[in-house]
Amino acid sequence: MKRNTLLTLLLALFFVLNVPLYAKTAQFSSPLEYLNSMTKAHKTSNYEQLYILQQGEDVQSLRYRHAYWNEKEYAQLLRLDNNREEMILRDDMVSYFGDFQPFSLPSSHILDDLPSVLYTDFNQLQGYHFVDSGRMRVADRLARVIRILPRDDFRYQYELWIDEETHLLLRSDLLDRDRNLLEQFRVIQNSVNEEFLYIVEPISTLILPALIQPKENSPQSTLNWKPSWVPQGFKAIASGKQTLSEFLMDNEQVESQLYSDGLFSFTVYVVQNKGIIFDEQFWRQGKMSIYSQTLGDKDIVIVGEIPLVSARHIVQEIKLQEIKPN
What we know:
MucB/RseB C-terminal domain-containing protein; antisigma factor binding; signal; MucB/RseB_C; MucB_RseB
Protein backbone atom coordinates (compact mmCIF):
# COMPACT_ATOMS: atom_id res chain seq x y z
CA MET A 1 0.00 0.00 0.00
CA LYS A 2 2.80 2.41 0.85
CA ARG A 3 4.57 1.62 -2.42
CA ASN A 4 1.42 2.30 -4.46
CA THR A 5 0.84 5.54 -2.58
CA LEU A 6 4.40 6.64 -3.27
CA LEU A 7 4.06 5.88 -6.99
CA THR A 8 0.82 7.81 -7.15
CA LEU A 9 2.42 10.82 -5.50
CA LEU A 10 5.43 10.69 -7.82
CA LEU A 11 3.20 10.49 -10.90
CA ALA A 12 1.07 13.39 -9.66
CA LEU A 13 4.20 15.44 -9.01
CA PHE A 14 5.47 14.66 -12.52
CA PHE A 15 2.31 15.95 -14.17
CA VAL A 16 2.10 19.03 -11.95
CA LEU A 17 5.65 19.96 -12.90
CA ASN A 18 5.36 19.25 -16.61
CA VAL A 19 1.83 19.93 -17.85
CA PRO A 20 1.90 23.74 -17.38
CA LEU A 21 5.10 23.98 -19.41
CA TYR A 22 3.36 23.02 -22.64
CA ALA A 23 5.96 20.74 -24.17
CA LYS A 24 8.02 22.19 -27.01
CA THR A 25 7.03 25.73 -26.05
CA ALA A 26 9.47 28.29 -27.44
CA GLN A 27 11.05 30.52 -24.81
CA PHE A 28 12.12 34.02 -25.74
CA SER A 29 14.73 36.18 -24.08
CA SER A 30 13.01 39.56 -24.42
CA PRO A 31 9.51 41.09 -24.52
CA LEU A 32 10.21 42.28 -28.08
CA GLU A 33 10.66 38.67 -29.23
CA TYR A 34 7.29 37.75 -27.75
CA LEU A 35 5.64 40.70 -29.52
CA ASN A 36 7.22 39.83 -32.87
CA SER A 37 6.20 36.19 -32.49
CA MET A 38 2.62 37.32 -31.82
CA THR A 39 2.32 39.40 -34.99
CA LYS A 40 3.89 36.59 -37.03
CA ALA A 41 1.56 33.94 -35.56
CA HIS A 42 -1.57 35.97 -36.33
CA LYS A 43 -0.42 36.41 -39.91
CA THR A 44 0.79 32.89 -40.71
CA SER A 45 -1.27 30.51 -38.51
CA ASN A 46 -4.48 28.66 -39.30
CA TYR A 47 -6.85 29.25 -36.40
CA GLU A 48 -10.24 30.25 -35.03
CA GLN A 49 -10.93 32.52 -32.07
CA LEU A 50 -14.21 33.18 -30.32
CA TYR A 51 -13.83 36.36 -28.30
CA ILE A 52 -15.49 39.21 -26.45
CA LEU A 53 -14.69 42.82 -27.34
CA GLN A 54 -15.56 45.55 -24.85
CA GLN A 55 -15.24 49.17 -25.98
CA GLY A 56 -16.51 51.54 -23.32
CA GLU A 57 -19.99 50.36 -22.42
CA ASP A 58 -20.40 48.44 -25.69
CA VAL A 59 -19.79 44.67 -25.43
CA GLN A 60 -20.07 42.26 -28.36
CA SER A 61 -19.09 38.70 -29.17
CA LEU A 62 -17.30 37.76 -32.39
CA ARG A 63 -15.74 34.84 -34.27
CA TYR A 64 -12.54 35.22 -36.26
CA ARG A 65 -11.23 32.55 -38.65
CA HIS A 66 -7.87 32.86 -40.37
CA ALA A 67 -5.93 30.81 -42.91
CA TYR A 68 -2.53 31.26 -44.53
CA TRP A 69 -2.02 29.58 -47.90
CA ASN A 70 0.58 30.19 -50.63
CA GLU A 71 1.83 33.26 -48.74
CA LYS A 72 -1.63 34.82 -48.76
CA GLU A 73 -4.02 35.57 -45.91
CA TYR A 74 -7.70 34.64 -45.89
CA ALA A 75 -9.96 35.61 -43.00
CA GLN A 76 -13.57 35.88 -41.91
CA LEU A 77 -14.82 38.02 -39.01
CA LEU A 78 -18.42 37.46 -37.94
CA ARG A 79 -20.34 39.50 -35.38
CA LEU A 80 -22.42 37.06 -33.35
CA ASP A 81 -24.85 39.49 -31.71
CA ASN A 82 -27.84 41.39 -33.13
CA ASN A 83 -27.84 41.82 -36.93
CA ARG A 84 -25.46 39.59 -38.86
CA GLU A 85 -22.40 41.48 -40.08
CA GLU A 86 -19.48 39.77 -41.76
CA MET A 87 -16.08 40.86 -43.04
CA ILE A 88 -13.97 38.89 -45.52
CA LEU A 89 -10.25 39.35 -46.19
CA ARG A 90 -8.82 38.31 -49.58
CA ASP A 91 -6.14 39.68 -51.91
CA ASP A 92 -5.39 42.75 -49.75
CA MET A 93 -9.06 43.69 -49.79
CA VAL A 94 -11.69 43.61 -47.03
CA SER A 95 -15.34 43.16 -48.01
CA TYR A 96 -18.26 44.08 -45.75
CA PHE A 97 -21.64 42.29 -45.70
CA GLY A 98 -24.71 43.07 -43.58
CA ASP A 99 -27.97 45.00 -43.58
CA PHE A 100 -26.48 47.51 -46.02
CA GLN A 101 -25.16 47.64 -49.55
CA PRO A 102 -22.06 45.37 -49.53
CA PHE A 103 -18.77 47.07 -50.36
CA SER A 104 -15.01 46.43 -50.36
CA LEU A 105 -12.05 48.51 -49.23
CA PRO A 106 -8.33 48.09 -49.93
CA SER A 107 -6.60 46.75 -46.82
CA SER A 108 -4.04 44.09 -45.97
CA HIS A 109 -5.96 43.08 -42.84
CA ILE A 110 -9.30 43.49 -41.09
CA LEU A 111 -9.17 46.64 -38.99
CA ASP A 112 -12.59 46.45 -37.37
CA ASP A 113 -13.08 44.88 -33.92
CA LEU A 114 -9.51 43.61 -33.56
CA PRO A 115 -6.70 45.15 -31.45
CA SER A 116 -4.30 47.37 -33.40
CA VAL A 117 -1.33 45.65 -31.71
CA LEU A 118 -1.84 42.66 -34.03
CA TYR A 119 -0.53 44.70 -36.97
CA THR A 120 2.19 46.76 -35.29
CA ASP A 121 5.84 46.70 -36.34
CA PHE A 122 7.34 46.69 -32.87
CA ASN A 123 10.90 46.91 -34.21
CA GLN A 124 10.10 50.43 -35.47
CA LEU A 125 7.91 51.54 -32.56
CA GLN A 126 9.31 54.45 -30.56
CA GLY A 127 8.29 56.06 -27.30
CA TYR A 128 7.39 52.87 -25.40
CA HIS A 129 8.89 50.43 -22.89
CA PHE A 130 8.24 46.69 -23.33
CA VAL A 131 7.99 44.90 -19.98
CA ASP A 132 7.78 41.15 -19.28
CA SER A 133 5.30 40.71 -16.40
CA GLY A 134 5.54 36.94 -16.09
CA ARG A 135 3.12 34.16 -16.85
CA MET A 136 -0.61 33.89 -16.25
CA ARG A 137 -3.40 31.51 -17.21
CA VAL A 138 -6.13 32.89 -19.48
CA ALA A 139 -8.71 31.10 -21.68
CA ASP A 140 -7.43 27.83 -20.15
CA ARG A 141 -3.99 28.50 -21.63
CA LEU A 142 -0.66 29.55 -20.18
CA ALA A 143 0.22 33.03 -21.43
CA ARG A 144 3.13 35.46 -21.21
CA VAL A 145 2.03 38.91 -20.03
CA ILE A 146 3.75 41.75 -21.90
CA ARG A 147 3.12 45.40 -21.01
CA ILE A 148 3.57 48.20 -23.56
CA LEU A 149 4.15 51.35 -21.52
CA PRO A 150 4.44 54.85 -23.03
CA ARG A 151 7.40 56.98 -22.04
CA ASP A 152 5.10 60.01 -21.62
CA ASP A 153 1.52 60.79 -20.61
CA PHE A 154 0.31 61.57 -24.14
CA ARG A 155 -0.74 58.08 -25.26
CA TYR A 156 -2.34 54.89 -23.95
CA GLN A 157 -0.80 51.67 -22.66
CA TYR A 158 -1.43 47.99 -23.43
CA GLU A 159 -1.28 44.78 -21.43
CA LEU A 160 -1.11 41.67 -23.62
CA TRP A 161 -1.55 37.97 -22.79
CA ILE A 162 0.31 35.95 -25.46
CA ASP A 163 -0.16 32.17 -25.68
CA GLU A 164 3.22 30.63 -24.88
CA GLU A 165 2.63 27.70 -27.24
CA THR A 166 0.82 29.16 -30.25
CA HIS A 167 1.96 32.79 -29.72
CA LEU A 168 -1.56 34.02 -30.53
CA LEU A 169 -2.97 36.94 -28.56
CA LEU A 170 -5.48 35.70 -25.98
CA ARG A 171 -6.29 38.96 -24.25
CA SER A 172 -5.43 42.64 -24.48
CA ASP A 173 -6.33 45.47 -22.11
CA LEU A 174 -6.04 49.03 -23.40
CA LEU A 175 -5.61 51.39 -20.44
CA ASP A 176 -5.29 55.12 -19.91
CA ARG A 177 -2.60 56.65 -17.70
CA ASP A 178 -4.80 56.07 -14.62
CA ARG A 179 -5.18 52.41 -15.65
CA ASN A 180 -8.86 52.78 -16.47
CA LEU A 181 -9.95 50.12 -18.97
CA LEU A 182 -10.77 51.61 -22.39
CA GLU A 183 -10.95 48.46 -24.49
CA GLN A 184 -10.64 44.75 -23.78
CA PHE A 185 -10.15 41.90 -26.26
CA ARG A 186 -10.65 38.55 -24.50
CA VAL A 187 -10.57 35.15 -26.20
CA ILE A 188 -13.05 32.60 -24.88
CA GLN A 189 -12.11 29.71 -27.17
CA ASN A 190 -8.91 29.36 -29.17
CA SER A 191 -8.30 26.63 -31.79
CA VAL A 192 -5.20 26.22 -33.95
CA ASN A 193 -5.55 23.55 -36.63
CA GLU A 194 -4.61 23.02 -40.26
CA GLU A 195 -8.27 22.12 -40.85
CA PHE A 196 -9.06 25.82 -40.95
CA LEU A 197 -7.48 25.88 -44.40
CA TYR A 198 -10.95 24.80 -45.54
CA ILE A 199 -12.01 28.49 -45.59
CA VAL A 200 -9.57 29.22 -48.44
CA GLU A 201 -11.68 27.69 -51.23
CA PRO A 202 -15.05 29.33 -50.41
CA ILE A 203 -13.39 32.71 -49.86
CA SER A 204 -11.38 32.35 -53.09
CA THR A 205 -14.50 31.64 -55.14
CA LEU A 206 -16.72 34.22 -53.44
CA ILE A 207 -17.93 37.06 -55.68
CA LEU A 208 -16.94 40.14 -53.73
CA PRO A 209 -18.68 43.54 -53.89
CA ALA A 210 -17.20 46.47 -55.78
CA LEU A 211 -14.02 48.01 -54.46
CA ILE A 212 -14.29 51.58 -53.19
CA GLN A 213 -11.04 53.39 -53.89
CA PRO A 214 -10.49 56.41 -51.66
CA LYS A 215 -9.66 59.62 -53.48
CA GLU A 216 -5.99 60.44 -53.62
CA ASN A 217 -4.98 63.05 -51.09
CA SER A 218 -3.35 66.28 -52.10
CA PRO A 219 0.36 66.49 -51.29
CA GLN A 220 0.93 67.60 -47.73
CA SER A 221 2.96 70.60 -48.90
CA THR A 222 -0.20 72.20 -50.37
CA LEU A 223 -1.71 72.67 -46.90
CA ASN A 224 -1.03 76.01 -45.28
CA TRP A 225 -0.93 74.74 -41.69
CA LYS A 226 0.32 71.97 -39.46
CA PRO A 227 0.51 71.38 -35.71
CA SER A 228 3.72 72.72 -34.21
CA TRP A 229 3.59 69.93 -31.60
CA VAL A 230 2.51 66.28 -31.62
CA PRO A 231 3.50 63.52 -29.15
CA GLN A 232 6.99 62.15 -29.78
CA GLY A 233 7.04 59.40 -32.38
CA PHE A 234 3.88 60.51 -34.22
CA LYS A 235 4.40 61.31 -37.89
CA ALA A 236 2.13 62.66 -40.62
CA ILE A 237 1.33 59.78 -42.97
CA ALA A 238 -1.45 61.34 -45.09
CA SER A 239 -3.01 64.72 -45.75
CA GLY A 240 -5.48 66.28 -48.12
CA LYS A 241 -8.70 68.19 -48.76
CA GLN A 242 -12.22 66.83 -48.98
CA THR A 243 -15.43 68.48 -50.18
CA LEU A 244 -18.55 67.90 -48.11
CA SER A 245 -20.98 68.88 -50.88
CA GLU A 246 -22.80 65.55 -50.42
CA PHE A 247 -23.86 66.58 -46.91
CA LEU A 248 -23.91 70.37 -47.03
CA MET A 249 -25.64 72.89 -49.28
CA ASP A 250 -22.34 74.48 -50.33
CA ASN A 251 -18.98 73.08 -51.40
CA GLU A 252 -17.40 73.34 -47.96
CA GLN A 253 -13.87 71.95 -47.83
CA VAL A 254 -12.27 70.12 -44.93
CA GLU A 255 -8.49 69.90 -44.68
CA SER A 256 -7.05 66.96 -42.77
CA GLN A 257 -3.79 65.43 -41.64
CA LEU A 258 -3.49 61.84 -40.39
CA TYR A 259 -0.80 61.04 -37.81
CA SER A 260 0.40 57.70 -36.44
CA ASP A 261 3.16 56.39 -34.21
CA GLY A 262 2.76 52.84 -35.52
CA LEU A 263 0.38 51.80 -32.74
CA PHE A 264 -2.14 54.63 -32.36
CA SER A 265 -3.39 57.26 -34.80
CA PHE A 266 -5.35 60.51 -34.89
CA THR A 267 -6.55 62.98 -37.54
CA VAL A 268 -6.57 66.77 -37.36
CA TYR A 269 -9.39 68.46 -39.30
CA VAL A 270 -9.61 72.17 -40.17
CA VAL A 271 -12.86 73.69 -41.49
CA GLN A 272 -14.18 77.24 -41.94
CA ASN A 273 -16.14 78.41 -38.88
CA LYS A 274 -19.85 79.07 -39.48
CA GLY A 275 -20.32 81.68 -36.78
CA ILE A 276 -20.67 79.43 -33.73
CA ILE A 277 -17.56 79.74 -31.57
CA PHE A 278 -16.42 76.57 -29.80
CA ASP A 279 -14.32 77.47 -26.77
CA GLU A 280 -13.70 73.78 -26.06
CA GLN A 281 -15.76 70.66 -26.71
CA PHE A 282 -14.68 67.09 -26.07
CA TRP A 283 -16.06 63.57 -25.97
CA ARG A 284 -14.55 60.12 -25.40
CA GLN A 285 -15.96 56.66 -26.07
CA GLY A 286 -13.54 53.89 -25.17
CA LYS A 287 -10.23 54.66 -26.85
CA MET A 288 -11.68 57.20 -29.30
CA SER A 289 -11.45 60.89 -28.39
CA ILE A 290 -13.02 63.87 -30.16
CA TYR A 291 -11.84 67.36 -29.29
CA SER A 292 -12.83 70.62 -31.02
CA GLN A 293 -11.99 74.30 -30.59
CA THR A 294 -12.34 77.45 -32.66
CA LEU A 295 -9.16 79.35 -33.54
CA GLY A 296 -9.78 82.60 -35.35
CA ASP A 297 -12.15 81.84 -38.22
CA LYS A 298 -11.35 78.11 -38.26
CA ASP A 299 -12.76 75.14 -36.35
CA ILE A 300 -10.10 72.59 -35.37
CA VAL A 301 -11.28 69.04 -34.67
CA ILE A 302 -9.15 66.09 -33.59
CA VAL A 303 -10.47 62.52 -33.79
CA GLY A 304 -8.35 59.57 -32.77
CA GLU A 305 -6.88 57.07 -30.36
CA ILE A 306 -5.19 59.51 -27.99
CA PRO A 307 -6.05 60.96 -24.56
CA LEU A 308 -8.00 64.20 -24.47
CA VAL A 309 -5.03 65.93 -22.83
CA SER A 310 -2.99 65.15 -25.94
CA ALA A 311 -5.69 66.44 -28.29
CA ARG A 312 -5.99 69.66 -26.29
CA HIS A 313 -2.23 70.21 -26.39
CA ILE A 314 -2.09 69.63 -30.16
CA VAL A 315 -4.89 72.14 -30.86
CA GLN A 316 -3.38 74.77 -28.59
CA GLU A 317 -0.09 74.49 -30.47
CA ILE A 318 -1.72 75.30 -33.84
CA LYS A 319 -0.96 79.00 -34.20
CA LEU A 320 -3.39 81.34 -35.91
CA GLN A 321 -0.75 82.60 -38.31
CA GLU A 322 -0.20 79.04 -39.53
CA ILE A 323 -3.75 78.91 -40.90
CA LYS A 324 -3.90 81.11 -43.95
CA PRO A 325 -6.69 81.66 -46.48
CA ASN A 326 -6.51 79.48 -49.59
